[in-house]
Amino acid sequence: MLPDAKLPTGPMAEKWDNHKFDMKLVNPANKRRFKIIVVGSGLAGSSAAATFGELGYQVEVFTFHDSPRRAHSIAAQGGINAAKNYRNDGDSVYRLFYDTVKGGDYRAREANVYRLAQVSVNIIDQMAAQGVPFAREYGGLLDNRSFGGAQVSRTFYARGQTGQQLLLGAYQQMMRQVHLGKVKLHTKKEMLDVVVKDGEACGIVTRDLVTGQVEAHSGHAVVLATGGYGNVFYLSTNAMACNVTAAWRAHRKGAFFANPCYTQIHPTCIPASDEFQSKLTLMSESLRNDGRIWVPRNPDETRPADQIPEADRYYFLEEKYPAFGNLVPRDVASRNAKMVVDQGLGVGPLKNGVYLDFVDAINRDSAEVIEEKYGNLLQMYERITGEDPYKTPMRIYPATHYTMGGLWVDYNLMTTIPGLYAAGEANFSDHGANRLGASALMQGLADGYFVLPYTIGDYLAPRLQKKLVDTSDEVFTTAVAGVQDQTARFMSIGGTRSPDHFHRELGKLVWDYIGMARNATGLEKAISEIKALKDEFWADLRVLGTADSLNSSLEKAGRIADFFELAELMARDALDRRESCGGHFREESQTEDNEALRDDENFAHVSAWEWNGTDQPQTKHAEQLVFEEVHLTQRSYK
Amino acid sequence: MSNTLNLTLNIWRQDSPNSAGRFETYKAPGIPEDASFLEMLDLVNEALIAEGKVPIEFPHDCREGICGTCGVMINGRAHGPERGTATCQLHMRKFSDGDTIDVEPWRAAAFPVIRDLVVDRSPLDAIIEAGGYISAPTGTAQDANDTPIPKEVADSAMDAAACIGCGACVAACPNSAAQLFTAAKVWHLNSLPQGQPERYRRAQNMVETMELFFGSCTNHGECSEACPKEISQDFIAYLNRDHMKAKIFNRKLASQR
């Protein structure tokens, strides 16, 4: 059974305020009696840990990085949304809420999204107070830019390094609590299991990546802020170590996994060049503010881009979507790029990209203005490709970037395991089937600063008498033994192929069959091929070195094992959802002009999958989505 | 398919913090010019695994020059030959066919080797912990536009805040000093209006913690040269000024207690 989502009653604008009042409180002196474990140190994890520490809880933070500042939130470039309406252009909490629900193709929970829009304004205030050097105008006030899927300018930014600056802000707040002794930091420790006793989360098991030591840690509540699973595609814009392991091990312990098929393919990345490639690099969506996207009309075009006259250029987004033009949401932009490349209009040596052209913007505003706005991005492009984007249009193509699916959580961000929470990209709750640009940073910080600090107290308050479960308890010793067994198993397979080999092969299957366009035949094929490859993995994996020292092959093996199981569930979820919505495009369900066609009658629900054991298909539970405010329509950005 | 290079690599191998290390030589044939330096190491590792040899551990994560995880000495230079470029953003087209490349971990007593090319940089976190923040508990903030900050000030703070914490400044410094890292954070926060209340306490605490781990700055300027974000050595002057003032102000405050 899927538990109640605990959505508050009352008018949309009052739900969160009412809920905050209704929740139980832990008095200040009692907060120190509770220990909260936070796994992950990105925006959601760091901000939650800092705030728990400020409130007086004992906090232990775990990260597999050598420093919490390395979490992948750091790589977000473009910005963070907030309904400040500083531009006087008609923005409001309601409009941000509306845009986000619509942008998510009506597959998000209204109440969660409304709360997100409400607290967005507090986030900007909070981060400015912490000294985040947001971009400013000469008058000293904050600057904004516009982003895809919105017709107002509500995105705040710090050059092209907004994620870095926000993460450093949250990290520094957390380090302040470390200094004050409220937060204990554990680096280079990877969480490999969640421990549950009497139906409630009571701790985690970690492996020390330097010594190989497997350790148990006890807590009154556990927060997973462990990011998304985009690396299941092997090539993605994620960092190399991003993985689904923490969320997946929680899933195996009973936490339902929601909407795994909702993956976001970001439209503006540098196209793949060769087999050796280890990752794809994102070029911020903010570039679409000033860059124009086009391909030559003639598939056999041989002239260099700057010699192709206007008449022979196909500005496909501007032509098809005059109202939003190059700023259509990510899923729409990506799918259209795929369409023109599939038609043979692609550019570059492998004909696998489209142009993103700054010539008009440079002529209009000058190269200096463009450099001021996007300098570091354009420089990064030049370093990677060896081409100068001020002279030659950039080549871009979609790549996996973000995953909207994740652990199912209720309105309090609690998973189906009481006491286990999921925050940031690790949960599923706010972006529906497609996330709008500059909303991930907003959600991570909203969860960590302004949601969890309230909701976790509601869970802890009645458990004042509850003692920490001793790590010598059977639930812990069994979990530790399980982790040790899995490690021993990887070390003993003694096969011939490296973890990366299997990861790359798995990624190809996922990209081909569960990528930008999906169909029933392909998905069924994916399920059987993933299984076959998984069997090879367990029979022919080669992990060298030892288990009691730094061993990245061993770390990867554990993560890839979980990616195999996740990939299978993604395919099942995509197969089950016989509609198109947002990032999930089923070829069988499209409009006459190739837009995603939803089936609200049958699929206006969240699919939450319950683990039934290894090699058993999961059971689906549906949470019906009720729309009180937003009217469901065919999304149109024309 | 891009052009390829045939390279010889001398790579530092060390099994654990306390064991003796040594250089080992590897042939790296057919490396594509379009590969990054780390993708070149990936290819070497795949070949090692195929031969049944333990792959080389090297630090890396985001591979887009922002997380600060990566960083090795390449022919004796932190992050290699290209200015303003982290190891992950260095591409093999900067090398020539037939080159021999020496690859070592960061060199600094404060950064002990964990394994092969991976070092422990936790002293950098200790410096931040000592004061690299503005105390602004959640919920206390006023409206973000209530405190205007001149664009020049915000831009200068951002120039300093761009530090990725990779430790190249320390590795490049003949004294293994961490002045550039510390100065970048101190200036980021001390230059902003929000950072004023804790300005001198911050400067003193961060410098004193830094001195527990790192050598002293003697103005060689190797740090800025090696910095993948080209952070200016000028910030060290600002740090020194604030630290000196802090010694005076904080002593005065102490006498009033």
Explain this structure.
- The complex is a heterodimer of chains A (638) and B (257).
- Chain A is of the alpha+beta class and 638 residues long.
- Chain A has 3 domains: 309 residues, FAD/NAD(P)-binding domain; 132 residues, Alpha-Beta Complex (Flavocytochrome C3, Chain A, domain 1); 112 residues, Up-down Bundle (Methane Monooxygenase Hydroxylase, Chain G, domain 1), CATH 1.20.58.100.
- Chain A is 36% helix and 14% strand.
- Chain A has a 5-stranded parallel beta sheet with strand order 5-2-1-9-17.
- In chain A, helix 14 runs antiparallel to helix 15.
- The two termini of chain A are 41 Å apart.
- The mean pLDDT of chain A is 96.
- Chain B is an alpha+beta fold and 257 residues long.
- Chain B folds into 2 domains: 112 residues, Beta-grasp domain (Ubiquitin-like (UB roll), Roll), CATH 3.10.20.30; 136 residues, Fumarate Reductase Iron-sulfur Protein, Chain B, domain 2, CATH 1.10.1060.
- In chain B, the strands form 2 sheets. In chain B, strands 2-1-5-3-4 form a 5-stranded mixed beta sheet. In chain B, strands 6-7 form a two-stranded antiparallel ribbon.
- In chain B, helix 2 packs antiparallel against helix 6 and helix 3 runs antiparallel to helix 5.
- The model of chain B has no long low-confidence stretch (mean pLDDT 96).
